[in-house]
Amino acid sequence: MEEEWMRDRARLRDLLMRYPHWRVQDYAQAVGRSRSWVKKWRRRLREAEADDVQVLMSRSRAHHASYPSWDPRVEERIVEMRLSPPENLKRVPGPRALLYYLARDTELQALQLLLPRSTRTVWKILHKHGCILEHPRPKKQPLEPRAPLEEIQIDFKDVSTVARSESQGGKQQHVVEVCNFVDAGTSVLLSAQVREDFHAQTAMQTVIDFLRQHGRPPTITFDRDPR
Predict the structure, then answer these.
(1) Residue 127 pLDDT more than 80?
(2) Is 15 exposed, middle or buried (0-12, 13-18, 19+ CB in 10 A)?
(3) Are residues 179 and 206 in contact, defined by beta-carbon separation less than 8 angstroms?
(4) pLDDT digits over 77-118, tens only?
(5) 116 in the Ramachandran plot: left (φ > 0), alpha (ψ -120 to 50) or beta?
(6) 98 backbone dihedrals φ, ψ, rounded to 5°
(7) CA gap 215, 3 in Å, rounded
(8) What's the pTM?
(9) Which of 16, 37, 78, 223 is the most exposed place for a label (fewest CB within 10 A)?
């Protein structure tokens, strides 16, 4: 990909030298690039020497400017205000509050020290000095496979072949739903009850009918349906 881009830039430089009076649109059509691309590289190519090969390469997008190193007194003051909130503040100050109090600190103002301006910088300083502890993310453990008929999963699904109706408020309402009973160990559909009036009472009756027919499994799991 980079070789293709360099070839297009070299092609544009050649056209700039041979046809200096062309319009931007002419260069764009000849190279097969956009007008904005031509404008950007035309400026860069004109600023470089005619035989400069490095200019044809993409510029690094890495951060070139050095990050400021904060005076230890500034960091010490941030930690101090974090542990002992200033001005009788009745809570632990966050980065935004710390920035506010830093700007009001007369001692730091007298020293004319460079102060952070972003909450992200304050967060980094607090992390550096152990004022904020990161909670390790729990590792996800795969569920153990279930034995047949060990767990029954109950889930309500809309019947997509039946169109929904709208209530007086303009909201779409369920028309026909199916209550599925699936064996988690084998993914076998054990039962599917279809109704137009599923609510708390009818959903409970459907579960009772299933238990009467198939017996009580060791575990039954539901989705987040409020019914």
Answers:
(1) yes
(2) middle
(3) yes
(4) 999 999 999 888 889 999 999 999 999 999 988 998 899 999
(5) beta
(6) -65, -40
(7) 69
(8) 0.39
(9) 223
Please tell me the distance from the alpha carbon of residue 192 to that of residue 206, in angstroms, as a whole number: 10
Rounded Cα gap, residues 67 and 59, in angstroms: 20
Q: Which stretches within the chain are classed as H helix?
A: 2-18, 24-31, 35-47, 72-83, 95-103, 106-111, 119-128, 200-214
In degrees, rounded to 5, the angle at the alpha carbon of residue 62 between the alpha carbons of residues 3 and 69 is: 165
Q: What is the DSSP letter of 185?
A: T
Q: What is the DSSP string of 117-161?
A: -SHHHHHHHHHHTTSSPPPPPPPP-PPPPPPTTSEEEEEEEE-TT
CA separation for the pair 24, 36 (Å, rounded): 9
CB-CB neighbours of 8 under 10 Å: 17
